[in-house]
Amino acid sequence: MEAITLNSRKFDGSSTFGIEKEVQMSDSGDVNAEDLKRKLSQQNGSVVGIESGRETLIEIDKDGKGLGLSIVGGSDTVLGTVVIHEVYPDGAAAIDGRLKPGDQVLEVNGVSLRGVSHEQAILLLRRTPTKVSLLVYRDVNLQLSLLDPTQIYNIFEVELTKRSGRGLGLSIVGRKNEPGVYVSEVVKGGAAEADGRLIQGDQILAVNGRDVASSMQEDVAAKLKACTGRVVLKVGRWKLTETANKARSGADAKIQLSTPNDHQ
């Protein structure tokens, strides 16, 4: 999975727009300006709420901030459509207050996201000017499924053997200022690769029975380094990521990588 570097922060196939570099769309872009103005004028300048079951056009003023969104989906994924996965607290979308996880993004500044791949959607969302218009659709059932971990995660255990002088053969990474630790790399020739079950993006939920789901990267790294012999990892894998991995698209990774990898 190709790594993307923006503003010295590493994103592992991420679709996170919380701290993106501002890239203005060119005059030759595909935005239909007149159609966009017409749609916005229909809102009479008022702040429009998003109603479930109908398409809604909203405008967000980034005011120097990033959008503060992570997305999943795209035409090359099991979802088929582009969906907001997280709204980050410090971003423009959170300040605006209308978007929620599960909202489908149908257009960005007049450019349709219907039928576009995950990577194409990322590029379109990164190339947004200060004022961003989004055509969105809210599906309550999809929102509920995203909020229910049993609907989106497969949870399983992996038993590895840590041999003297060697690690587990994996690298981990945490999210920016938030708990939760994920596998960022499975090292060739290591125990994890030999086992064959762990993949990039898996969340480590427990180490030898000790819950680390809400732990920071440093704490999990210390626990893994202290392990000897038999090591049992409880792992959570996002179902959509699993599907995308099988398709070799890497399209559904959703982890914001913000700290150096710890090699275990």
Automatic annotation (TrEMBL):
Its protein name is PDZ domain-containing protein
Cited InterPro entries: PDZ (IPR001478), PDZ_scaffold (IPR051342), PDZ_sf (IPR036034)
Q: Which residues form a coiled coil?
A: none
Task: Cite the PDZ domain residue spans from the record.
Answer: 57-140, 157-239
Q: Which domain of life is it from?
A: Eukaryota
Which one Pfam family would you cite for this protein? PDZ
